[in-house]
Amino acid sequence: MTETWNLDCLENIGGHKTEKIGEPTLKGDSVIFDGIGSGLIVHSNPLRNAEAFTIEVIFNPANSGSPANIEQRFIHFQNLINENSRILIELRLTKDNQWFLDTFIKSDDAALTLYAEKFPHPVDQWYHAALVYENGIMKHFVNQAEEMSGNVNYVPIVEADTSIGMRINKVSWFKGAIKTLRVTDKALLPSEFLKL
Questions:
Q1: Counting CB atoms within 10 angstroms of each CB, which of 109, 134, 168, 183 has the fewest?
Q2: What's the whole-model pTM score?
Q3: With bands split at pLDDT 50, 70 and 90, how would you rate the model's confidence at 38?
Q4: What's the CA gap between 78 and 84, in Å, rounded?
Q5: DSSP collapsed to 3 states, the chain
Q6: Which domains, from first to last, does the chain contain?
Q7: Which residues contact 41 (CB under 8 A, 6 or more apart)?
């Protein structure tokens, strides 16, 4: 099963009720986040019960301009009762106007961070990022290129909300634009990923 969320509305995404935090704005077929207090919470979990998955996001990160905002957790799935059951797609900004991907799975006693500081990318461009999990192996990709992988035991998240443009507890704000979020309940090959 695949669920595609196009961010072309602030009140309803993918047929699910959306809670608006701060002042995210629509621009064409994407949502602009200001990096200081805007985000969206979707009251739905497209990962529900998936034992394998691919999470994809099409986004355009901007230079924050603030040294206090270099860690931006812009896609976050979390069980609201058990904070040890969560998945995040994050980025880190560098001093030379670049960014790199940071992905995280926390599943009860197991956890893994893929911190791709050796793979910087310029800001102010559109990118595709993917987090793929299957059979204990977690991988992440930028523009179809695999950057890092590792081993982690993941237990499917059953009940959760999804935050976009921020961490679900309303910190770590993203600055830039997000166009599409897609979740598939299997490990896709790069050739099967969304195209920019």
A1: 109
A2: 0.97
A3: very high
A4: 8
A5: CEEEEECCCCCEECCEEEEEECCCEEECCEEEEECCCCEEEECCCCCCCCCCEEEEEEEEECCCCCHHHCEEEEEEEECCCCCCEEEEEEEEECCCCEEEEEEEEEECCEEEEEECCCCCEECCCCEEEEEEEECCEEEEEECCEEEEEEECCCCCCCCCEEEECCCCCCCCCCEEEEEEEEEECCCCCHHHCCCC
A6: 2-188 (2.60.120.200)
A7: 18, 19, 21, 161, 162, 163, 164, 168
| Other residues' Cβ atoms within 10 Å of the Cβ of residue 95 | 7
Residue of 107, 51, 35 whose CA lies nearest to 78: 107
**Burial of 38 from C-beta contacts in 10 A (0-12 / 13-18 / 19+):** buried
- pLDDT tens profile 39-74: 999 999 999 999 999 999 999 999 877 777 899 999
pLDDT tens sequence across 129-167: 999 999 999 999 999 999 999 999 999 998 899 999 999
CA distance 17 to 95: 37
What's the mean per-residue pLDDT of the chain? 95
Torsions phi, psi for 192 (to 5 deg): -100, -5
